[in-house]
Fold:
Amino acid sequence: MTTPSYPRDPRARRSGAGRAPVTRHRCARPLDTTKRRPRPSPGAQNRLTAALGVLAAVLIAAFVLAPGPLANLGTPGDLADHGRLLDALRAGFTGYWHSGERSPSGDLVTVIDFWCRYHLAKGAIAALLLAVFVALTVRLWHGFLRAGQASVRAALASAGAATTAFALVPLAAVMANLQGAAAPFASLFPMLTEDGGDQPFAAALMQARRQLADPTGAGAGTSPAIDAMTDEFARYHVVMAVISSVLAVVAVGVAVLLWRRFAATASTDRRTRRVLGSGGALTVLLAVLLVIHVAANVSVAADPAPALARALNGGL
Structure:
């Protein structure tokens, strides 16, 4: 029986010299454990885009038709009807004005609560519509970047520009309805100037206008109702200033992200750079407009009485 011989040099032994080489089969490769998601087919992508378009149309209809009935649930009377809402508001305001109290009560509280729920429902639907428009816009611009035919690119670019512009409408609706839900009494003030109403209401509204026009005139001071309405009007504009400030910060963040991606994109990829540059410019413009809006609302909140007088006289 023979014993295997090993090389005497310990370095050769440690290095494996003298051993039979280990061969690996060509097919013995490490397994790829990462799963790649198959890209959806163009037909599936088109169906999803069409579904988003249909959903947007449904939400637009709901934005117009649904808030009134939703807000009217649990409310005595049919305040979803604009005429009945006006009658209830005028009667409630007349009683509030002659009550001598600072806080609204009775029928006016019922109208204010309804109006708050109305803005909440409208704002929720507008937020869903905004999300759909954002998703639809992103899909259209991604399709534009992948499209090969010039006619298809032109159609996708036109549709993407349209949905980008349309998305600003539900964005403004979300802002306005958040403001209205936070200060519902102030958002009812423009309705007080609509045509109609009985003599007691007209007299109460005229007295409110006179006190706002000349608070130091006859009677030496303003009523508690005017003080409360002025404070509510100031809060109404403070709320919008806060909303616009938050959105301005978001717009600046999105603009920075888009411009950084623009700078990181190769100069040869002109189509991508064009989309990123346009999006960055639009968000910068939006941020500037929001900052101007913040300044305007802060100015009104600092001195709300003149603006409230204009509102009760049918002005802006």
Remarks:
- Confidence is low (pLDDT under 50) at residues 12-16, 25-34.
- The chain has eleven helices and no strands.
- The radius of gyration is 33 Å.
- The CA atoms of residues 241 and 294 lie 5 Å apart.
